[in-house]
Amino acid sequence: MAPKKTKKDPKKVKKSTASGSSVVPVEIKPLDSDWWDVFWQKNSSTPGLMIPSDEDQGFKYFFRVSKKTFEHICSLVREDLISRPPSGLINIEGRLLSVEKQVAIALRRLASGESQVSVGLSFGVGQSTVSQVTWRFIEALEERGRHHLKWPDSCKLEEIKSNFEVSFGLPNCCGAIDATHIIMTLPAVETSGDWRDNVQNYSMFCQGIVDHELRFLDIVTGWPGGLSISQLLKYSGFYKLCEGSERLNGNAKTLSEGVEVREFIVGGTDYPLLPWLITPYGKDDHSSTTNEFTLSHNAARLLAVKAFSHLKGSWKILNKVMWRPDKNKLPSIIVVCCLLHNIIIDCGDSLLPDVPLSGHHDNGYVEMRCMEVDQLGKAMRDVLAKHLQNLIQKA
Fold first, then answer.
1. β-strand 260-261 against 253-254: which pairing, if any?
2. At what angle do helices 99-112 and 55-63 cross, to 10 degrees?
3. Which of 212, 178, 207, 5 is nearest to 98 (CA)?
4. Which of 121, 173, 202, 260 is deepest in the core (most CB within 10 A)?
5. What is the pLDDT of residues 57-79, one digit of tens each?
């Protein structure tokens, strides 16, 4: 919460000139510290919205996070939000916006995807204030919250691999990968073919790798939606690290069959089959040997699908058609939404049950099977399929 101000009467300070010959009274505006009470009273009965009657649940409904997680987010960005003069950041009553209210405005804009005008009305501020506050918050959290989205250290990675093996029978699996489109409209001068995707939308990609808790471990964004998934992967830093043996390069695991399996992630049919990225069998490759693998692989891969469903369901700005966004700023918005997603998980917070999207996170898009097959990847997939079949037979 905002620090309490010491009481001074009258609320003026005297500022001396260089010569000391005169003073200029400067009014100190009080902070808008009661923002939540005012917001809740004004918005808790909004027609057409299923707003919980419980105030704590209502807080999470509007901002997607609990009050405790909200305080953590404020602590991350507080220094940045107060380090610059908040010129113009006042509400209609002439009071300065507290850090908490600034964070709330930004979270509401990202969570609802509503227009800046609409968000401003709910807080009693203007459209320009919503715009300025939201962007300042995005810049601050992208810098201060980056430790919430990073590739795990060896100890954490062992925990992830253990959970994937226990849950899906996949030894040495380090995560699941997927990608989603962020749809937008563009000015005519910017409507190049690169940004038009295969369903004729203009869009930007976001690719993510997630762990067993739906936490994003790695993301890449900023690339045009007109690329194929295979191209998107190969443009990513993660691909370059893996190909250079700098990632997914931990110890191989020896299976009961006496063969070794390296570290890998799982992905859908639109990804290439690589030694470190295992994709499903094609329709022509299915057999009794592959059935168990197909079930396990699909269940593990759906973790990434579920994570993106939570992401775009929680931060609806990503699930609405963005009106002529600045393509240089849009990646930062996407990254910050991924950071917020992870912060919720890291803080032990939970999502409301109706937050995830009811349909697929990339509704309207169809997986385009990638025909690229690395022979080492193919051999490793066969080893995993045989291993899972043996586990079933021994059970």
1. antiparallel
2. 70
3. 5
4. 173
5. 999 999 999 999 999 999 999 99
